[in-house]
User: Fold this.
Amino acid sequence: MRDPREEIRERIDLVELVSGYVRLERAGSNFKGLCPFHTERTPSFYVSPSLNRFHCFGCGASGDAFAFLMRIEGISFREALHRLAERAGVELRRESLARQEAEDEIERLRRAVFAAHFYYRQCLQRAPRARQYLQQRGLTPETIERFQLGYAPNGWDYLLRFLQKHQITIEDALSAGLIRQGEHGHYDYLRDRVVFPIHDAAGRVIAFGGRTLSDEEPKYLNTPETPLFEKRNTLYGWHLARGAIVRQRSAIVVEGYMDLIMLHQFGFEHAVATLGTAFTEQHAAQLRRLVERVYLLYDSDSAGIRAALRAAEVLEEAGVPTFIVELPMGEDPDSLLHKAGAEALQQALDAARPASLFGLEQVIQEHLIRAGVERVELLDLPARARVLQDSLRFVARLRSPVEQTACLERLTPLSPAYLTSPQAALEALQRDVRRLQREQRRAPGGRASRRAEPGGQTSRRAEPAGGRASRQAETLVGGDTDATAGEGTPPPALSVQLPRAVIDAERTILRAALTAETAAMVLDQLPHIEWSLPEHRALAQALQQLPQPPYRYAERELLNALQDEPQQALLTSLLLQTEPPLSPTTVAECLAYLQRRRERARRLQILNELTRSDQPPDPEKWQEYWRLRVES
Ligand SMILES: [Zn+2]
Assistant:
């Protein structure tokens, strides 16, 4: 049987899929648009229907429909497989009975939740009190519709009876968190509450939150976690916000349903909310793929500030630049928007401070409050020293050197050296921070040991999947030392910039091999070129191993003949590249350029050996050296 992945790939219209996220325009037989994976003004993102792949010349992102969906939605391969299968109308084979059963259960729970949602929405139509409440809170009918709000009526088993009438079993209703088991039987989980459906990334309802209409506590109540719903993986509003997050390359994070809904209603559609849980690593991972910065818009009370600082720490650990938005005292996003409108909120966003500076301010504030003074200058000397000590410990934990420096600049007036010279003070503080960092690394459970955890990929910002090639190209060990670094030799500690021209020349030669008019010039040369990038070498080898010259194949066939993704990505970018136009002259120049570089490298290597060796000079080596010297 055919690989379902392949079948799905063939059936999905990649241009149509991508168009859901990126505005594409025709470019010859391909389409191009602004890359959704990096910020750019002129399009370098291409979709090729003939190759059935996308490729970005800016950031190197590249791949098929699966790669696109995984990346833009921040989902796993499995999830992408399911969604594309659904879209393509391909039925996936079940791998095992157990999985089948688990999926059957998921399906049943989905049905239960779906039915409950249908019921809650109907109830809202018949509940003037609930509608009035929403209206008082300032929600427009469009917003209520967009967020698909509902109402859970005031009674013990209305929902239960509705579900039973629609062939949902009590077991499923229990597992889906819709009802509860009590001493006297089962009863509805949410009663007399406005209902906020919670969606997954695909926009399917998976759980509910409820806001009481009476004085009952708690004010907000979520249905419990189920196989469908895990709080730590779920951001409320994600399915509505994702498009705007991709466009704006940033996200606003708030803490509650109402704040989120109001932000969207006022046009801040890149907002998402955590659901009665702290901001988690999973949340950070979900955002990190799409954003360049995150704004934390939490309540301005002390609990809100602590929560924001904790969230900032999680985001900083994931490498996401984070800003904390401060609202006027006593306001929350909802109240501010109603009083002062979108402009006031935008001002607060624009004025948001990096989380590190904000955190530092909190450390200082705590000391001031304890001492009962308003400014650091009013503290006595021992107290100042204590503030400085705590502040430096905070700074030492920061990842980004830029933020460290920004924080230290704020602290210089506290340094005893400040009176002599601010610059001297800054340098003294920098030394202190380095010392603290060394101590933290030595301490058990310190940063260094945490980073070393297997699978702990939190230490660096996730790289774009395709971005590796271009990044490698920037810092790869190369230049004139690469001739000495044979295979299996560990790369020298010092990396030398690999000139762009080398990579370009190699690409031109590879392109020439794919083109009928120029292939003859280069095919024989491929084995002799010392490729500077491993993927260039791998592709050259693969092309040589084909039973026919590469240009005899249809593009798609050629792509399928290659085994691994990096090679396919490289081939895609070569096939899409049109500049510079290939001509025999260009190709010959590139070959000559690489030849000259190779000889120069060899020359330097010989010279090195000759001058370093304690042995008397080897006459043959000298001869070779002079021959190379004269010839090049
Ligand atoms: Zn890109």
Notes: Residues 35, 37-38, 45, 56, 58-59, 61 surround zinc ion (CB under 6 Å). Residues 446-496 have pLDDT under 50 and may be disordered. The radius of gyration is 31 Å.
